[in-house]
Amino acid sequence: MNFSLFNKKKNPSSIKEEWNKIGSKYAAEVNDMVAFGEKNGWENWKGKEPEDNRDHLADELFRLLKEANKNNVVKEFRKDFPPAHTPLIKFFETKGQSIEQMHFIENEKIIFLTGTAYQKRQAYLLNGEKVIELESDIDAIGKSKRNNVFAISSKYSIVTTQGWQGDIIHTFELNETKEFGISNLIPFNDGRKVLLISSDGIYIISQEGEKMIHPEPDLEDEEWSSYIDMENATISNDNKHIVVGDQCADHRILNENGIQIGEIGAQSSYPHFCLFSDDDEQLITNSCHFYNGITIGVSANQFEDLKIEAYEESEDYKVIDEDMRVYIGLTTKDLYILGDAYGYIKAFNKNGECIWRHFLGSTIGGLAISDDDKILWVGSCTGMVHKLKLGEGHRDNHTLGNGNHYEEFRLIVWKGEPIMMW
What are φ and ψ of residue 365, in 5° steps? Predict the structure, then answer.
């Protein structure tokens, strides 16, 4: 790397040597520890917790990264300084922001939002390495499970289109929900209805109006409120079922009209996430406690009148995972890919076998995958978008995980900074 481009406050060669020596050692120790714990049980691990002691290099590394972007030598910088999470935590705390509502469009093009439901959001289109800032009044973006229908919420309305910026299918003018912060938005496959998820309630938006389907009103409680925490919902890929849940209510299975047909009790403290398998034959639900959680799978042929009790073992479900507090997930033909509170992405099959894991750090809030299942984009509250080529081999010996994935780049969208690459 041509470090003559940089203002040499410190010797870049010594920084590079120290960064790589510590980073590769830390990655090897973490990978060995996790492999041991998974194989032999964490109770049998007697070693020390690995430490990434590179905090003192963070300020100079950040300066060099900004200079590399300014001088268009990012690929050289990446080769000399493989990315890390722990040393940059202080920057994430002050400059990071949530990356959410990430959706695949075509080829190597995705869209995503920065900010949470009750923050001023900004939408971006990422096409290869080119970033385009979209209209500032976009509040939420959703994509259907099938048929490539998109939904955009802005200016108190939701517009569904056939494809990204394609022909308009329908425009829904919002009334009751117009001021809601939208946690998630899922258009139905025909674009004629939209599932709107918010902490003020979960609604089906249609030409007939805005119908709240969760929480269930308590007609005997004069102080009843529709406000919920940890609101989460999904639609089956064929749109025949809707699943809803929140911190204080078990996951409820509804038909396409919002009528309850089954219920799944939490196996950890609070219902937090739900997702259907690609073929709709299985539904997974996650419940959490602090940063951990339990995910179970239920066969779709059991839905009618299903009642799974909370905190009870049952033959009606299969344990998929016993560790993750899941924030986001998607499906491939054979796998669930889930992102958690700790910053892990893990892939599971329907039997609960963990096929691979990959660590990026901090809560994962966005996932999108190409139609051929070869490229995965990951967004987290660090304000970073990671582009991973699945199964292409590790790019460096600093990678945490056994997924054998190649990170092509990290897009850095930080508050108060120009957009950068790493």
Answer: -120, -10
Q: Full-prediction pTM beyond 0.70?
A: yes
Tell which CATH classification among 2.40.10, 2.60.120, 3.90.1010, 2.60.40 matches the domain 137-228. 2.40.10
| Segment (H or E) for 296 | strand 292-299
CATH 2.40.10 residue ranges for the chain: 137-228
Q: What does the pLDDT read at residue 221?
A: 87
Within 10 Å of residue 11's Cβ, how many Cβ atoms?
Answer: 11
| Pairing of the two strands 157-162 and 149-154 | antiparallel
Dump pLDDT digits (tens) for 87-107.
999 999 999 999 999 999 999
List C-alpha distances in Å: 94 to 85, 161, 255. Answer: 14, 37, 44
Q: What is the mean pLDDT of residues 362-381?
A: 98
Mean pLDDT score, 400-418: 97
- Element containing residue 346 per DSSP (H, E): strand 344-348
Q: Are 129 and 409 in contact (CB under 8 A)?
A: yes
The position carrying tokens 């590769």 is 24
- For residue 299, what are the contacts with CB-CB under 8 A and spacing of at least 6? 281, 282
Burial of 367 (0-12, 13-18, 19+ CB in 10 A): buried
